[in-house]
Amino acid sequence: VLDTALDPTRSMIRNLDVMRLVEPDVDVLLGASSGFLADVLIGARRVTGLAGRDRYYAAAVGVLADMPAHPTRVTVDGQIIHDGPASLAAVGGGRFRAYAFQFLPCSVLDDGELDVCVIDALVGSAVSEVADLVPSGGHLDRPEVTYQRGRRVSLERTDGESLVAEFDGEVWTSAGSTLTVEIVPGALRALARKDC
Question: I want to staple 165 with a disulfide (CB 3.0 to 4.6 A). Which of 85, 151, 172, 185 is the partner?
């Protein structure tokens, strides 16, 4: 890693975007979500005898068996793109979440935009069909999936309950009913390989 980082022919400076979460007043790098990913993190707290990825994946199996669906309105740059039950609403700059799942397969860390993926309430065989496609990013072609890009995104739980939400892999324990995400372009200087 150091050999690559210190070799100017193999490394470069990238100015990565950061996301500003308005309600909790924090900056994040990879993303935020409501629904499935947060439910898995909460479920992982109850898994015993496993650690790391195994613990996370065990919790994911449990959540998939009883897929969440929360009444959710998603607005991108002032335009409503979803208003109804959703199993997941993810916003971010990073393609991958939970180690290997491309919920946001078109996302780039320094393009000045947020990527948004909303997955409708999933039931029956649709749960496993969509879940099987997420690791490769192939879920975007499914009718249950809405994908959009923008600079300001709002996730709102429309029944007045608190969002089940997370950001950068941490459960947002004091969530209210709304999460607003704004892009802060080029806010973080990072050293990266030229081929990524």
Answer: 172
